[in-house]
Structure formats: C-alpha cells, structure tokens
Write a structure and sequence with these properties.
It is built from 8 helices and no strands. With 235 residues, the chain is an all-alpha fold. Helix 3 runs antiparallel to helix 4, helix 4 runs parallel beside helix 8 and helix 7 packs antiparallel against helix 8. The chain is globular, with a radius of gyration of 19 Å.
Length: 235
C-alpha cells in the first residue's frame, strides 16, 4: 500500500508543477465551499420555511451567474465574485430541494448512497485527469459536444414519442457524459492556467456543475431502481 501511495505522489509531483498545484488547491477549496453552500440551500428548502425553491429563485441563480461571469477577475473583485459564486451554489442547492424531498419520501438512504457514489466517481475521474499527461484528454471536447447534440435530439424526439426507453437512455447517456466532463474540465483548467487564465472561481464553477449533474443523474437512476424493486416485492 505504501509503495502504491508513493508511486501516486511521485506521479502527481512529476505531472504538475508548483504554481499549477497551488491553483488547483484554490479551485478545489472553492469547490468544497460551493458544495457546502449547495447543501445548505437544499437543507433550507427541505427543513425550514425561510426560503423555498421557485421560479424566482431560479431567476436569482441565473442573475448571480451572469453577475459572476461579467464581473472582471481581479484582486479588487475577488470577494465579490466569490460571494456571487456562493449565492449561485446556494440557490442551486435550493433548486435540488423538491427532488431530494421526493427521493427521501421513497427511501432516505438513496440520498446518502448517491452522495457517496458521486464523490467516488468525481474523485476517481479527477485523479485520472490530474495524473494523465498534459492535454491528453482534451480531445473529449468534440465527443462531449456531439453527445450533447444527441441528447438534445433525444429530448426533442421524446416530446412526441413519450418512450420510456428514450428517457432511460437520456439518463444513462447524461451520466456517462458528465463523467467525461469531469476529466475534460479538469485538464482544461490546467491548460487554461498555462495560457494565463488564473480565474480559480470560474474554474471551480465548472467542476461544481459537473458534480451536481453527476449527483442529479445518479439520484434519479437509483430512485427509479428502488421503485422497480418495490413493485417487484409487492408482486
């Protein structure tokens, strides 16, 4: 085990130089706080009457996202932009509240299983991207763009067909695609840094969106599986 750990550390050290490592520390620290903010938002929706998910909060999240993207990245605006990020992630978590409430009413353990599975998937694919040679996975950009087009086509077709097969394919394809985005976005962040883009707040936002989408897809798939198992037990 120690030998494997040493190999991992050495590979990580050889792949990334000190400035990139520091940038990634900032990115993942920001991502961790964003995830906690989203969890707080979900908690507020489910267990308090302070604020509930609605169309207004959706527009609020969109407004904060636009504010974050349009505010210049400099030392003067760093705290302001970080506030925009936490506000956006809080409202994003709030938006997950209704889905989480539904899942908890079916089986609360699904949420914990999904969170653990999402974390394992995210960490595994992130490590794969970090240890790979620089730019090795950037070719995935074209493939993932094609997959997005295919999924849009699936969604449009299912408006008229209403086939469960298409809905299931959409979920599995979406999960597979978001796992690909974890690898792609991680390596893209490194490449952007080498090109002079040091905006770790926006970089953490990219990874936050990946994490949430993996979580959402897994949550729905595991809930559907639980419902199928429940029907079988009743039969």
């Amino acid at each position: 085990m120690a030998k494997v750990l040493n190999t991992f550390v050495n590979s990580f050290s050889n792949t990334l130089n000190a400035p990139v490592k520091q940038h990634l520390k900032n990115v993942y620290a920001c991502l961790s706080l964003s995830t906690l903010s989203a969890a707080a938002g979900a908690y507020v929706h489910m267990y308090t009457q302070f604020l509930q998910s609605s169309m207004l909060t959706t527009f609020g999240a969109l407004g904060l996202l636009i504010a974050l993207m349009t505010t210049p990245n400099n030392d003067k605006n760093k705290k302001l932009r970080f506030g925009y990020l936490l506000g956006f992630t809080f409202l994003s978590g709030l938006g997950l509240g209704p889905l989480l409430e539904l899942v908890i009413s079916i089986n609360p353990s699904i949420v914990i299983t999904t969170l653990i599975s999402t974390t394992v998937i995210f960490v595994s694919f992130s490590i794969s991207a970090l240890l790979a040679p620089r730019g090795h996975w950037l070719y995935l950009g074209g493939i993932l763009s094609s997959m997005i087009n295919i999924m849009l086509l699936f969604s449009f077709a299912n408006l008229f067909l209403g086939l469960s097969f298409i809905s299931q394919s959409y979920l599995y394809l979406g999960l597979f695609m978001m796992c690909g985005f974890v690898i792609y976005d991680t390596q893209l962040i490194i490449e952007k840094y080498h090109m002079g883009n040091t905006d770790f707040i926006m970089h953490s936002l990219d990874l936050f969106i990946d994490f949430v989408q993996v979580f959402r897809h897994l949550l729905i798939l595991l809930t559907q599986k639980e419902l199928r198992n429940s029907r079988k037990r009743k039969d």
